[in-house]
Design a protein that fits this description.
Blueprint (H helix, E strand, L loop, with lengths): L1 H11 L6 E4 L4 H11 L3 H5 L6 E4 L10 H11 L9 E5 L7 H12 L5 E6 L8 H4 L3 E3 L10 H14 L5 H7 L8 H18 L3 H19 L5 H12 L4
Parallel strand pairs: 1-4, 1-5, 2-3, 3-4
Helix pairs in contact: 1-9, 4-5, 7-9, 8-11, 9-10, 10-11
C-alpha cells in the first residue's frame, strides 16, 4: 500500500510532515503510525501516554468544538515527555465546526516544534480547503497491486527519468499508459522512489523535487479538475534541475 510506504519512508528519512490527513477514515493506520513514533507501547495501549493527544466529537454529539481545539493547543505547547514528538490524532475531523477549524488552521500554519498532527476523516469534502492544503493527504484504499506488471513498468520509467534516460515531456505525455494508476498514485510512487534515493545518499536537490511534488499533490487535492498533462510537464521539467 502506497500510504504505508510513504509513512515508512518519512519515518526512515526523518522527514515526517507536520500534518497528515488520513482520507479514508483509516484510524488503524493512523494509530499504528502514532505507536511507531511514540516511546513505550504499554502506555500507548492504555491510552495514558503523556505525548499522545486525541480529539473526537463528544459522546452523543457530531461536533468538535473550538474549546476542544484550544485545550489541545495549550497541551501540545509542552515539550514531549519521553518521545521525540507530541502526537495528535483528530478523529472524525469533518466534525470540526467553523471556529474549531479556524483555531486548528492557525496551528497548521505555524507548526509547533516536535508535534505531528494526524486528522482522520471519511468525508474529506466537508473539510475546509485551507485545512486540506496544509496537510499531506494519505489514502489507504489504493486498489492496484504493488508488484503488478504495470507498476513495475512505471517504476522502471521513473527510474530512467531520474537518471536522465527519458525525456520529461515524453513521460508527461505518456503517463496515462500506466493503466489503473491515477495521477495521485503516479506522484506518490515517484515520491517514494525519491525518498528511497534520499535515504541512500543525501541530496538537497532531491528535497527540492520532493517539495515540488508535495505542492502538486496539494494542487490536485484542492482542484482535481486541473489539466494533468500540463501539471506533469511543469513538475517534471522543473525537476530536471533538481535531480
Amino acid at each position: 500500500m502506497l500510504a504505508e510506504k510513504l509513512l515508512a519512508a518519512w519515518y526512515e528519512n526523518n522527514s515526517i510532515p507536520h500534518a497528515l490527513l488520513f482520507a479514508d477514515a483509516n484510524t488503524i493506520m493512523a494509530e499504528n503510525y502514532a505507536k511507531l513514533l511514540l516511546a513505550n507501547d504499554a502506555l500507548f495501549a492504555s491510552r495514558n501516554h503523556p505525548d499522545y493527544y486525541s480529539v473526537a466529537p463528544e459522546l452523543g454529539k457530531n461536533i468538535i468544538t473550538v474549546e476542544q481545539i484550544r485545550t489541545l493547543v495549550r497541551q501540545i505547547m509542552v515539550k514531549p515527555h519521553s518521545s521525540k514528538y507530541n502526537i495528535v490524532l483528530i478523529a472524525r475531523a469533518e466534525c470540526l465546526n467553523l471556529n474549531a477549524a479556524n483555531a486548528l488552521l492557525k496551528t497548521l500554519e505555524e507548526p509547533i516544534s516536535n508535534t505531528i498532527i494526524m486528522l482522520v476523516t471519511s468525508k474529506m469534502q466537508l473539510l475546509p480547503s485551507t485545512i486540506i492544503s496544509r496537510c499531506q493527504v494519505l489514502r489507504g484504499n489504493n486498489n492496484f497491486v504493488v508488484d503488478s506488471k504495470i507498476h513495475k513498468i512505471l517504476k522502471d520509467d521513473l527510474n530512467r527519468f531520474l537518471t536522465n534516460n527519458i525525456d520529461p515531456l515524453d513521460l508527461a505525455v505518456n503517463w496515462s499508459q500506466y493503466k489503473n494508476i491515477n495521477i495521485m498514485d503516479f506522484l506518490q510512487i515517484l515520491l517514494v522512489l525519491l525518498l528511497e534515493r534520499q535515504k541512500a545518499q543525501y541530496n538537497k536537490n532531491i528535497w527540492k523535487f520532493i517539495n515540488n511534488i508535495y505542492d502538486k499533490l496539494h494542487d490536485l487535492q484542492l482542484a482535481p479538475q486541473l489539466n494533468i498533462q500540463l501539471l506533469l510537464e511543469d513538475l517534471l521539467i522543473r525537476s530536471r534541475v533538481c535531480t
